[in-house]
Design a protein that fits this description.
Shape: elongated
Distance between the termini: 61 Å
CATH topology of the domain at 33-72 and 105-194: Porin
Strand content: over 45%
Largest sheet: 8 strands, antiparallel, barrel
Helix content: under 10%
Number of strands: 10
Length: 195
């Protein structure tokens, strides 16, 4: 005999206690922030550089590319030369060390990389990559012999850590630099912003 009818002109707000963590703005699934701009120390820049990194699939993990530019600050290199000298009783080598100041030189670099998402890809990732670095000028650190330019290939592996609402990224890893006649280990670090 009695009935009750409720009509609402507005949507009833959902109880915030029922809202799952993934519905919070920080964790929207559509926000993957696949682009990163970060500063580097050593690594592919061989000094100090700025790198842009992006994924092809629009997510944090997966296949992508990176490219950047940097400078190698001025430093002093020692060059050791030897020549055969004569002693009183026998032949012997005479070693001579000369020091050379290498001026500041720019670098350009780029490559492909793959980012693996660990159990929590929004926070921890592992990156492997390969690419090339072109240095305007000579560097005895990475290549023996004197030339007007230095061309290096490299392989790298690094860990990535995302923090502060997942917008910032810190990375650290190791790298092998390959020249025409030398292999040089190198540290690879970076800190930047994801968007």
């Amino acid at each position: 005999m009695f009935s009750r009818i409720y009509l609402y002109a507005q949507k009833v707000p959902r109880d915030s206690s029922r809202q799952s963590r993934k519905e919070h703005p920080v964790y929207y699934s559509s926000k993957k922030w696949p682009h990163v701009v970060y500063g580097t120390l050593l690594g592919a820049s061989c000094g100090i550089g700025v790198t842009y990194d992006t994924r092809f699939n629009g997510k944090r993990s997966g296949f992508g590319i990176m490219a950047g530019a940097g400078v190698v600050p001025e430093y002093e290199e020692g060059r050791v030369s030897r020549k055969l000298g004569t002693g009183a009783d026998s032949l012997r080598y005479v070693f001579n060390t000369t020091y050379h100041v290498t001026p500041t030189r720019p670098t350009l670099y780029g490559g492909f990389n793959y980012v693996f998402g660990l159990p929590d890809p929004d926070k921890h990732c592992v990156e492997i990559g390969a690419g090339m670095t072109y240095m305007f000028g000579d560097s005895l650190w990475f290549e023996e012999g004197v030339s007007s330019r230095t061309l290096l290939g490299w392989l790298s592996v690094a860990g990535r850590r995302h923090f502060i609402n997942k917008h910032f990224m810190f990375r650290m890893g190791a790298m092998l630099m390959f020249s025409s006649n030398q292999v040089t280990p190198n540290l690879d670090t970076g800190f930047g912003y994801c968007f």
